[in-house]
Amino acid sequence: EKLEPYTGNIRESTQQKLGSLQQIFLESAGSLQEHFNSKAEEFKK
């Protein structure tokens, strides 16, 4: 019963880390998409 707040904190921090990882992934995926789109535009010209 003493461990409960501790495991709760671990769970929260893990979710926060996963959330920020997801954010980073989405941002890098977005910039990759933009990069490919601009390359595609260059090829169309």
How would you characterize the overall build of this protein?
By secondary structure, this protein is mainly α. The chain has one domain. Helices cover 91% and strands 0% of the residues. It starts with a helix and ends with a helix. The mean pLDDT is 90.
Number of individual domains: 1
Question: What separation lies between the terminal Cα atoms?
Answer: 67 Å
SSE order, one letter for each helix or strand = H
Total helix count? 1
Largest sheet: none
Instruction: Tell me the structural class.
Output: mainly alpha
Question: What is the C-alpha radius of gyration, as a whole number of Å?
Answer: 20 Å
- The tally of strands reads 0
The amount of helix comes to: over 70%
Mean pLDDT: 90
Unreliably modeled segments = none
Overall shape: it is rod-shaped
Q: In percent, how much strand structure appears in the residues? A: under 5%
Describe the structure concisely for a colleague.
Helix content is about 90%, strand content about 0%. With about 45 residues, the protein is an all-alpha fold.
List the SSEs and their pairings:
Layout: H1 4-44
Keywords:
45 residues, mainly alpha, 0% strand
